[in-house]
Amino acid sequence: MAPLTDNRTLLILKGAAQGKYGVLAAIAYNIEQLTGLVRAAEAKRSPLIIQLFPSTLKQLPTLAHAAAAAVKSASVPLSLHIDHAQDVEHIREIIATLPVDSVMVDMSHFGEKDNLEKTRILAKECHDRGIAVEAESGRIEGGEDGIADTGDLEALFTSPEDVNNFVAAGIDILAPSIGNIHGDYGPSGPKPGQLHFDRLASINKQINNRVLIALHGTNDFPPEVMMKCIENGAIKLNVNKLLLEVWNEFLRKNAAAMPLVKLVDQGIEILQKETEKWMDICGSSGKA
Known about the structure:
This is Fructose-bisphosphate aldolase. Its EC number is 4.1.2.13. It holds the Pfam family F_bP_aldolase. Its cofactor is Zn(2+). This protein is an alpha/beta fold. The chain has a single domain, classed as Aldolase class I (TIM Barrel). Helices cover 47% and strands 13% of the residues. The protein has an eight-stranded parallel β-barrel with strand order 1-2-3-4-5-6-7-8, surrounded by eight helices. Helix 2 crosses helix 11, helix 5 runs parallel beside helix 6 and helix 10 runs antiparallel to helix 11. The longest helix has 23 residues.
């Protein structure tokens, strides 16, 4: 078994847990977004986890290698994570062929028994290669680009039994279900009472540093909600639309009229600034 002591993702998250701040785990769909994210991390002296979806690996096979090169060349701690890997054979292909630091083994679309068993087997296979493992306990409803939609499956809150079962399955990072959803909450973010912060705090206490907590479903979060999640134990903060919507809006408004090179340059700069803002909010700026 390869040691996890030098695993980049876990080193980043353990540092955040000790320092009581959150780290962005940011989705990139292309090289321009990857560039903006990395530039933000360098500018803010912040750790950062770069996330790719399995669907992106199939669309742009070289993007993982570009991300891995950025991880190795950066002057701040970065890591490469594959988010929501839901196909067992594709997971095995990823860990055998790509330079990744961690994988979310997402078997939440199976029943509880199969979810745990598949997670346990895949966690061992990942650990044998020195790759850290994240898993989702309970079930977070909804879907977004790159994730299978679970809208036809009932959302399940993470229970104390779930926590114990997933820790026993050998994972390193737990993504609990506390009322968070994949997809959009609306312009004001989660409704009052939708996120169960008390449940998150209880999970964090129960874990007692055995694993780390990831928070999924941050679309439309206002800063105060994100900070409250961090206060209650969330360390790895998965972000997609929260950062990328400024990029998308800029392209929608300017793609038809602006020269391509200028469009790319300004788009990267806008995404970098948005990422820097959220690094400040999450408390990771200056921690690298």
